[in-house]
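Please complete every field before forwarding. Incomplete forms are returned to the sender.

SECTION A: IDENTIFIERS
Entry label: holo-304
Bound molecule: nicotinamide-adenine-dinucleotide
Molecule representation: SMILES string

SECTION B: INPUTS
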Amino acid sequence: MDILITGGAGFVGSNLAIYLQKMADNITVVDDLSKGVYKNLEGFEGDVVVADISKENMDWEHYLDFEPDYIFHQASNTDTTYPDDKEMLRSNIESFRNILEFAINSQAKVIYASSAGVYGKGTIPMSENSQRDPKNAYAFSKYIMENMARKYTENYDLECVGLRYFNVYGPRESFKGKAASMIYQLALQMKELKRPRIFEFGEQFRDQIYIKDVVEANIEAMEAPSGVYNVATGKPTSFNKIVEVLNKVLGTNLEPDYIKNPYTQFYQDQTLADVSLAASKMGFVAKYDIESGIEDYMRWLGFV
Ligand SMILES: NC(=O)c1ccc[n+]([C@@H]2O[C@H](COP(=O)([O-])OP(=O)(O)OC[C@H]3O[C@@H](n4cnc5c(N)ncnc54)[C@H](O)[C@@H]3O)[C@@H](O)[C@H]2O)c1
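SECTION C: PREDICTED COMPLEX
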C-alpha cells in the first residue's frame, strides 16, 4: 500500500504518518513547514517532501517515485483568526484542487480533513445534513472543499471521504502554541499551579475528540463510501468539565479564572456531533471519552 500524507509535519498529519508507516510499502509526507515541525516526525521512516502544495503546476512526479493508493490530505492554514481572508481561501482551496487533480491521475482515494467549523453556530446535535453556515474564511474554505469533493466524486469517478473533525486534542500539538487545543493550554497552566483561564462562565461545551480516535477514523475512512462524516464523540464536554477532569488527573484543586470572550462574532459556544452516520457507514465509534483521553494525553506529556 502506497500512501501520501499532506500536512504530515502538523498535529494530525504527524500522528497519522507515525501510525500508517506500519501498514505502508511506501509512505511520503509533504509539508511546507509553514506551521508544522520536523520534530513531530521523529521515528518516521518514510520520505519527507518540503513543498507548498497550493502552488500551480505542482510536479508530483518529481517528488514521488510511486503513485499513491491513498492520499490523506491534512495540509491547511489552520489559523482561524488569520487576518488575510484572500490568502486563506487561495491556499486551502487551491491545495485541495491540486490534490484532487493528482488523485484523478493516480487513481488514489482521497481522505481529507474538513471541520466542524462548517456548521458555524448551527443547532445541535450537528448532523451531516444539517445546514452549513461557515462563520470565517477558514470554515468557508472547508465548506468549498466539501463542495469540490462532491463535484469531483460525481464527475470523475473519484473516491473521496471528508472528515469533519470536531475539537481534536492530544500528542504532537504543542508546537501550535496559542492555537493548540484548549485542553493542552489549560493543562500547561494547571501544571504550573496557575488557575485555569476560561471564558465566562465555563458552561460552553464542545465535542472533544482524542487524536488516537481521529487516526482511527482515517483508517476506517479507507474502506468507507465517498461522502462527508463527523469525527467526534457525540458527547458534550463543558469547559468547566475539562478543568474538573484535569484537576482529577493532575491531582490539583484549582478554581477556574473566568475571562471575557473577545471572539463572540464567530465563536462556537456549543458543538455536539450526531455520530450515527459515521458509525453506520464508516464503522467509526470513538473509543476515548474525555476522562480516558485526558488521562492518556497527560501521561504522554509526562505530566503524571
Ligand atoms: N486540530 C483540530 O482540532 C482540527 C479541527 C478541525 C479540523 N482540522 C483540520 O485537520 C487538518 C489537520 O489539522 P492540524 O491540527 O493537524 O493542523 P496543523 O496546523 O497542525 O497542520 C497543518 C499542516 O499543514 C502544513 N501546511 C499548511 N499549508 C500548507 C501548504 N500549502 N502546503 C504544504 N503544507 C502546508 C503546515 O505546515 C502544517 O504542518 C487541517 O486540515 C485542519 O483544518 C483540525
